[in-house]
Amino acid sequence: MAKRIFGFFLLAITTFTVLLGCCSATVHKVGDSDGWAPKEDDNWTDREEFHVGDSLVFEYDRNFNDVTQVSGGLEYEFCDSSFPKAVYNTGHDVVTLKEPGSYYFITSNHTQCTSGQKLDVLVTHDPSSPIPPPSPSKILPSGNIYKVGDSKRWSVYDSEFYYQWSKEKQFHVGDSLLFEYNNEVNDVFEISGDLEFLYCDPISPVAVHKTGHDLIKLTEPGIHYFISSEPGHCEAGLKLQVVVGPTANVPKLSPLERLTRWLNSFTFNHH
């Protein structure tokens, strides 16, 4: 029994120390000194290794370019920016690689994209770092799905309609918003703050959705802002802000509690 307790204690201390002392993430400046620019047969990615937690820095002239993250290889190959996962256009964009897998970036300037201004990177876990325990969001039940505007969908040009719609509901982390609309005449831009929302400014969106059937999960508490980027639509009332509270009816786990739960998933054999 004493050996079992000692073994558990030793593993807990070792794991906690490793988790706290793991290697720092790497910041990769895309294109090095040339920045984010057209390049043919560029082998920049061949000289780099990309791990979860690393960041990409895109530097460029925002008057002529942007960084558009697309979802797959076909969009990447054909320089199709019609349905981006995210759009960045500050001229100095820092994109954190949060999950393993393939990431695809292009410029929405089609001429420059076909000239080689695009980037795909394969992201893996750093072999020198332990895979962290799952975050609470991975083990929480799915939340509610709210169809924005209910039967009227994302199409009402009334400054009070969506305000009243959201006011009558309580949103929590884990819930999702479903935007349904005609994507030939509308879209959904998620923006970052009050001023952008007030003045219907879509210049620097957090994310862009254009499928006509967009399911957006609310992953963080706080105020989330959504507008249409089509000229005049937001000003006419096609805008939504929702206040998101913590996950409903699920206790928030501290880092120590998360570590304990993760360690308890191991089986210790008594010899």
Automatic annotation (TrEMBL):
<keyword id="KW-1015">Disulfide bond</keyword>
<protein>
    <submittedName>
        <fullName>Copper ion binding protein</fullName>
    </submittedName>
</protein>
<dbReference type="InterPro" id="IPR008972">
    <property type="entry name" value="Cupredoxin"/>
</dbReference>
<feature type="signal peptide">
    <location>
        <begin position="1"/>
        <end position="25"/>
    </location>
</feature>
<dbReference type="InterPro" id="IPR039391">
    <property type="entry name" value="Phytocyanin-like"/>
</dbReference>
<keyword id="KW-0732">Signal</keyword>
<dbReference type="GO" id="GO:0005886">
    <property type="term" value="C:plasma membrane"/>
</dbReference>
<dbReference type="Pfam" id="PF02298">
    <property type="entry name" value="Cu_bind_like"/>
</dbReference>
<feature type="domain" description="Phytocyanin">
    <location>
        <begin position="26"/>
        <end position="125"/>
    </location>
</feature>
<dbReference type="InterPro" id="IPR003245">
    <property type="entry name" value="Phytocyanin_dom"/>
</dbReference>
<dbReference type="GO" id="GO:0009055">
    <property type="term" value="F:electron transfer activity"/>
</dbReference>
<dbReference type="InterPro" id="IPR041845">
    <property type="entry name" value="Mavicyanin"/>
</dbReference>
<feature type="domain" description="Phytocyanin">
    <location>
        <begin position="144"/>
        <end position="246"/>
    </location>
</feature>
<keyword id="KW-0325">Glycoprotein</keyword>
